[in-house]
UniProtKB/TrEMBL annotation:
Residue ranges constituting the tRNA/rRNA methyltransferase SpoU type domain according to the UniProt record: 14-146
Alphabetic keyword roster: Methyltransferase, Transferase
Lineage: Bacteria, Pseudomonadati, Pseudomonadota, Alphaproteobacteria, Maricaulales
Signal sequence annotation: none
Protein name stated in the entry: RNA methyltransferase
Length: 179
């Protein structure tokens, strides 16, 4: 049984700068759709990445608005929407310590590359995923959106002991299974 994503006040979008592989973009769009994104975008996407329609099995673009900006100068976000770069920089905030804005657009860098210096300047926040090395861009998007859901989705604090909360601790939560 699948449960719907819990409603969160605000909204978010997710996008990639300079992406070149349609399978990665398809996975990002599918993940954005699964987590309830309000929009998705690319900036300076390689023409091959625009073949995403063949790789997005959920047909996410039928459900999530998509903006394909040719350049950073063309990118226009809603007023009050914080641009959050996901990048491995020395001064980036580690994802587990980051408080997500209610209205945010998350932007990730290209495969085998980084966000451009021009994009980083536009970012209100820069966040890093605490890994030993870079992960695939679609994995980074999924980790970021999962973290947003956990932080802003109205979930109760995790129990102190291993397992889930006891029955009755929170509406909709099942009792832990005993062995």
């Amino acid at each position: 049984m699948t449960r719907p994503v819990k409603a969160v006040r605000g909204y978010f979008g997710v996008g990639v700068e300079g992406i070149s592989k349609p399978m990665n973009l398809g996975a990002i769009l599918r993940t954005a759709h699964a987590f309830g994104a309000s929009f998705a975008f690319t900036v300076d996407a390689h023409h091959k990445a625009r073949d995403v329609f063949r790789s997005d099995t959920a047909k996410s673009l039928d459900h999530v608005p998509y903006y394909g900006w040719d350049s950073l100068d063309d990118m226009v976000l809603p007023q009050g929407c914080a641009l959050v770069g996901i990048e491995l920089t020395d001064d980036a905030v580690e994802l587990p310590s980051f408080r997500h804005p209610r209205a945010a657009a998350y932007v990730l860098g290209r495969e085998r590359g980084s966000l451009t210096p021009e994009m980083l300047v536009r970012c209100e926040h820069v966040v890093r995923i605490p890994t030993k090395f870079c992960v695939n861009v679609s994995v980074a998007a999924a980790l970021t959106l999962y973290d947003r859901t956990i932080c802003l989705g109205g979930y109760p604090d995790r129990p102190v002991m291993p397992g889930g909360p006891e029955l009755g601790d929170a509406e909709g939560w099942a009792a832990p299974k005993s062995r």
